[in-house]
Specification:
This protein has 453 residues and is an alpha/beta fold. It has 16 helices and 16 strands. Helix 1 packs across helix 5, helix 12 runs parallel beside helix 13 and helix 13 packs parallel to helix 14.
Amino acid sequence: MDRTYERAIEIIDSRNRVQRPDPRPTDAVRSKVAADKVNNLRIIHVAGTKGKGSTCSFAESFLRAYGERTGCPAKTGMYTSPHLIYPEERIRLNGVPIDRSRFATYFFELWDRLPQLQSVYDSNKGVVERGPRTLQLYALLAFHIFIREEVQVTIFETHSGGEYDATNVIERPVVTAVTTLGMDHICTLGPTIENIAWHKAGIFKSGAVVLSTTQDGGTTVERVLNERAAARGEAVRFVGNDDRLPAGMRQLEPAVQMQNASLALAAAEAWLDERGAGKLDPSDIRSGVEQWSWPGRFQIIPDISNEHCTWYLDAAHNDMSVVIAAQWFATQARQAVTILIFSHINELRDSVALLKSLATALRDTEVKIDHVVFTSYDKMPTKEGASTENDDLLREVWHGLHPESRVWWEPSIDGAVNRTRSVAANHGDRIQTQVLITGSQHLVGPALNILQP
């Protein structure tokens, strides 16, 4: 059969669920990966509501900087989800997405070993009868790649939960860490912050270091985390901002990134301590921050075609994150024409409620938005000039809080970027234009690919 990268992605995508199943993992999937080789990957396992990706990438960067100085770890592995632009971004070696040829080679090694992958997908039932679904398959592939590549340390991000997450087949992590918690994925994790904390803390294991950032929910959230850790015979160490992180660096802005980096620093040092590998040097910490990059998170890009236009991208996609994105944009906003590009399509979240949270936060920070461009990243966008019932609701909510904004609808992200550039050009070359793009990674990724091909 065709064993190309494109065919591998086609197979993975074909196993995407149409309807959300029971979140508990099947014994078949668990038994395939719960093996000594997985446990020997020396894993840092990270769960949370916001900041998981940034925390994972900071931890990887600190350990890579340490390895570059000392020789160990000589190779790092990192798994994150979802990807921003290309699927291979999920699986990184030494901070770099795995190349496509190796991605395909390793995928078809799994294909040959797992007959479940060759089962027929039943589109009427909307489920895969046997074998891993898309996210489970990505996690399986990551485990396989890290084992084959013989990485010395692995940083693994959960998908959405913890207790029943596909990544929680990890039985003996070295370190477990929970980032800031908030209300998200309530359909699967439960309607209260206590439910969510219970699920996220499911990654805690006996014998592993247990860390958490200082939680906004205070004693309620921390009590649940402490109880779940105690049941494993461990105690949670809550991590505040670390004053060893270098001040004034753009990588640590806004303040939430300082929080993520502090948790990552604690995780990296706990990993080194548990392995008896020494300590991070101040130079490792500085190098880890300086070389750190996580596209699509609090990213600022000058427009290549208009020096008076600047783009601000943040892949915020829940109520907590869009508020932080609004606050970050407010600190950047100057006397300029301001434009928002927004889209959010998700069966588990209310896009109208998400927009209301964003609009309210922008109003509360006294940011006046002159233009709003609503768009779609769906594979089947509406016809040009047309809008849907949901788009009408978005307009209504937005105008209720920002009545002076001019609202546009563009069916594609290309169209939204071009519309924004046209609006910016119409204001002339003496007026600065600042554009905030937020609402989803599925919006920010393609937009970033347009702005920085």
